[in-house]
Amino acid sequence: MDPELEPFIPLFPRADLSDPVAERKNFTALATSLPAPDLKDMEVADHTVPADPDVPVRVYRPRDAQGGIVWLHGGGFVMGDLDTEHPWAGRVAEGSGAVVISVGYRLAPEHPYPAALDDVWAVLRWAAEHAGELGFDPERLAVGGHSAGACLAAAVSLRARDEQGPPIRFQLLNQPGLDDRQETWSGRTFTETPWMNRDKVSAIWRHYLGGAPATPYAAPSRAEDLAGLPAAYIATAEFDPNRDEAIEYGLRLLRAGVPVELHQWAGTFHGSQALLSAEVSQRQLGEAAAVLRRALAR
């Protein structure tokens, strides 16, 4: 474990997703306790995307933005919203110079798959259609997120390819959970790792799938064909059950001819980049923003 992260491990709450509705309060308290970035040099506005039902989004618009990204929060498909993601969406916009469209998608178990993906799909299409009004070039549109949000970003990339949806230029997948089967070495072995462990992953997929069989749009690792997908940046944490499935997804993208930048962060655990005082966390956040800036500026 990175020595700067290790002292914080006992302070992390042990989420019990047997009652996800109750756990949302703890997640909100933890997320909103983080310092928000200084956003005085950008416009921040809430919008509603017409859909069935309508989808709330928060748009962060830096000056002279070139590209835009549909940004999807983490929280295991059962936690998180526009407010809990505010510190991170703001940092992504600030560091990358991209217009960030943060999505308040519906949560499981009240709204199991495909509700969240349908919300993201509606926002992706809306963002492409209103790119000019939102302040970015529609040919420089990306998707991205953390954890469950990264899963949704990968899934909507598959759907956009298959259904000839809006062209996606880039997918930024930070510590994605992509496979419900938990058959990798890290998925089988990391039973007591901080914040995310095997039991928690099992609960996440149980709530999200709602008893239905997984499809590639729910768990992108199940997709047989990855050709024609957008270029990707994939970041993984060393002590994370999701680690190996994300690395394998990156390798499969490469074998399918998709450009991939893959970074395995040594000594980290799932979500540890929230510990902003650690040097490794600062490097993780800085790299993700720089990668997005470069991908949308080409």
TrEMBL record:
<dbReference type="InterPro" id="IPR013094">
    <property type="entry name" value="AB_hydrolase_3"/>
</dbReference>
<feature type="domain" description="Alpha/beta hydrolase fold-3">
    <location>
        <begin position="69"/>
        <end position="272"/>
    </location>
</feature>
<dbReference type="Pfam" id="PF07859">
    <property type="entry name" value="Abhydrolase_3"/>
</dbReference>
<dbReference type="InterPro" id="IPR029058">
    <property type="entry name" value="AB_hydrolase_fold"/>
</dbReference>
<dbReference type="InterPro" id="IPR050300">
    <property type="entry name" value="GDXG_lipolytic_enzyme"/>
</dbReference>
<dbReference type="GO" id="GO:0016787">
    <property type="term" value="F:hydrolase activity"/>
</dbReference>
<keyword id="KW-0378">Hydrolase</keyword>
<protein>
    <submittedName>
        <fullName>Alpha/beta hydrolase</fullName>
    </submittedName>
</protein>
